[in-house]
Amino acid sequence: MKNSFTNHLVCLKHPGKHQGLCLEPLIVNEEDECQEGFIKCNYCDALYPVIEGIPIIVGDLGKYAQGRPYTYGKWLLSCKTSKMRDFIKEVGREMSAVGKNDRYEETGPWFLPYRWTQYDYSKDDRLLKMLRWHIKPNDLYNRAVHQVNPKNNGGVALEMGCSVGYSTLKLADKYEYVIGIDLSFSFIKEARKRKAESKLMNVEFCVADALHCPFKSLKFDLILAINLIELTEPVELLSTIHRLLKPYGSVIFLDPYDFNRDTYSTGKLDAQSFRSLITSSGFEISQRSSKNESFIPWILKMNERSYLIYFVDFINATRTYKQKAHFGSNGMNGRH
User: CA-CA distance, 257 to 118, in Å (whole number)?
Assistant: First the structure.
């Protein structure tokens, strides 16, 4: 992590104050990047660790770790300093129980499929060779970035739920600075590996929650959210995006609306109901995606004999100056 990344962050404990953070590096590599250390709030002394070069900006590190016991163990083994090791051990003492929330970590079922679809697929793959049309699994991400038209060569972009970082790195060609966030430590580690290989200097990745982003309001010119709607509460997600975008900033959603798999969302949406929710949440949908659904093919390889094939919807919207109140089916403000 570059030292300057702290200039983009705020403390989660009091986001309204927009209190800045400072870096306490413990290990710095040859590229002058912090490999191990702490990001510290000068206002409340909150600490966010940097492990293996990855900043972990979550509100409750103990709760995060107890859902990822394998990842937590890797943290302990990777610590190079006694100060970080003692900190991680103290986090372990606060863990009330070991849970399972690691489906997107390297030992979970979704890590390899996402890496395959973005980077590791081959034209000799059995399924891809059988298809009539020559589909590249990462065409979805290329198409999303292709639709982005920055107003100028500057600006800052954010990808929420960036997984292993393919589209985040593509956005770096269009924006002055790009940030990718995901709750999977393993995803972010892989994304940083790909960043190093690309030698891009205007990109940073961190572990963070899309609903509790450690960024100032009105910061971003663009937010990209791919396959995220069913993994969050959509109303809260749209509220967060509205807060983070500059007036008339853009947001791009791509989603298959797969509410049948493991999901965190309490409500089910389809192309039309999600469009209605977007417009009631302070956004104006572009004419190209206002009425017609998209059916962009997206393939994930689960294992040698099993694939998931989705048709993904595409929506491009603009933040209006004020956020409208959202009303649920019962006429009261609330979740969809």
Answer: 20
Cα 168 to Cα 118: distance, rounded to the nearest angstrom: 11
Alpha-carbon distance of 124 to 102, in angstroms, equals 31
Q: Pairing between strand 220-226 and 156-160?
A: parallel
Mean predicted confidence (pLDDT) in 205-216: 96
Q: Give DSSP secondary structure letters for 227-256.
A: S-GGGS-HHHHHHHHHHHEEEEEEEEEEE-
Q: What's the residue count for the chain?
A: 336
State the CB neighbour count (10 A cutoff) for residue 160: 25
Q: β-pairing, 177-182 with 203-207?
A: parallel
**Cβ neighbours around 250 below 10 Å, total:** 23
What are the CA-CA distances from residue 214 to residues 58, 149, 205 (Å)?
8, 26, 12
Query: Coil, strand or helix: which one is 109?
Result: coil
DSSP state of 326: P
Q: What are phi and psi of 216, to 5 degrees?
A: -70, 155
Encoded tokens for 312: 């993904």
Separation in Å, CA 187 to CA 75, 114, 150, 320? 15, 9, 27, 32
- H runs (alpha helix) in the chain: 61-66, 69-78, 82-93, 111-115, 126-130, 139-146, 166-171, 185-198, 234-244, 271-279
Tens digit of pLDDT for each residue in 238-248? 999 999 999 99
Cα of 232 vs its chain's centroid, Å: 11
DSSP result, 130-144: H-SS---TTHHHHHH
| Tokens, residue 139 | 């065409």
Query: What's the pLDDT score for residue 292?
Result: 83
- The pTM score is 0.92
Alpha-carbon distance of 112 to 114, in angstroms, equals 5
Q: Are 297 and 139 in contact (CB under 8 A)?
A: yes
Q: Under DSSP, is residue 311 helix (H, G, I), strand (E, B) or coil?
A: strand
Q: What is the per-residue pLDDT across 158-179, written as a single tens digit (0 to 9) for each?
A: 999 999 999 999 999 999 999 9
Write down all domains in the chain, each with its CATH number in brackets: 3-93 (no CATH), 111-319 (3.40.50.150)
